[in-house]
Amino acid sequence: MIDFNLSLQTKDVNVLTEAVRTWYQHNHVTPTEGATQLLCSAAIDLFSQGHRTPEELATLLITRFDSPHSLQVNATTSTAHH
User: How far apart are CA 76 and CA 82, in angstroms?
Assistant: First the structure.
C-alpha cells in the first residue's frame, strides 16, 4: 500500500486557503473566481519559496496585492496590435 501522506497535503491546502481567505477579509471584498485563481497561484508560488504559515503568506499577499484593483489585468498582450 502506498502512503501519499494525505494529512500533510491537506494541511498545506489549509494553510494556502487560510492565507487567501485572510486577504479577502483584510480587503473587505467578496471572493470572485478570477481573483481567487490569481491569489491561489501567488500563494502557491510563495509557499514553494518556503513561506509556510498562513500569517506569513497572508502578509505577503496583502503586500503584493494591496487592493482588489491590483488583481485586475489591464490589457490583452497576445492580441494587441501595434
Answer: 12
pLDDT tens digits, one per residue of 13-69: 999 999 999 999 999 999 999 999 999 999 999 999 999 999 999 999 999 999 999
pTM for this model (two decimals)? 0.79
Given a contact cutoff of 8 angstroms between Cβ atoms, the answer to whether 54 and 19 are in contact is yes
Give yes or no for a contact between 54 and 18, defined as CB atoms under 8 angstroms apart.
yes
CA-based R_g, the chain, Å: 15
Burial 23-38 (b: 16+ CB within 10 A, else e): bbeebeeeeeeebeeb
Q: Which residues contact 47 (CB under 8 A, 6 or more apart)?
A: 12, 15, 16, 57
The pLDDT value recorded for residue 74 is: 56
Cell, residue 63? 503586500
Q: What is the DSSP letter of 50?
A: T
